[in-house]
Amino acid sequence: MSSSSARGDQWTFLTNHARVLLWIARDPEVRLRDVSAGIGITERAVQIIVADLEAAGYLTRTRVGRRNRYTIDTSVALRHPSEADHPVGDLLGAFLHREDTREADPAEPETAAGP
């Protein structure tokens, strides 16, 4: 087996930053330990990622009692120059919309509303 084949199953399309942002988008009051467990990275890594996302303007953290509530600014552009013409909301919308459609009853076909 070549070394490229051995590495082939280790990469993914999304970064941990994208995964954390998606978890927060699904539940703005999520605990970081739950994000950590769901993604499979340390809680400290999630804390660092949240700090990165906050510093870059993608999200804000508001203290509500003993918990944090996160608000995402979906208008902030993606960071890589080749994707900078897309807001992060496009990425979130693609993934969150897909998750919403999975929850629909697959036995019932979607129909367009007609006159």
TrEMBL record:
Entry-linked Pfam families: MarR_2
Stretches assigned to the HTH marR-type domain: 16-65
InterPro entries given in the database record: HTH_MarR-typ, WH-like_DNA-bd_sf, WH_DNA-bd_sf
Entry-linked SUPFAM superfamilies: Winged helix' DNA-binding domain (SSF46785)
Region of interest called Disordered, as start-end residue ranges on this chain: 96-115
Sample GO molecular function, one term: DNA-binding transcription factor activity
Signal peptide interval: none
Basic and acidic residues bias locations: 96-105
Protein name (Swiss-Prot/TrEMBL): Transcriptional regulator
Organism: Streptomyces nanshensis
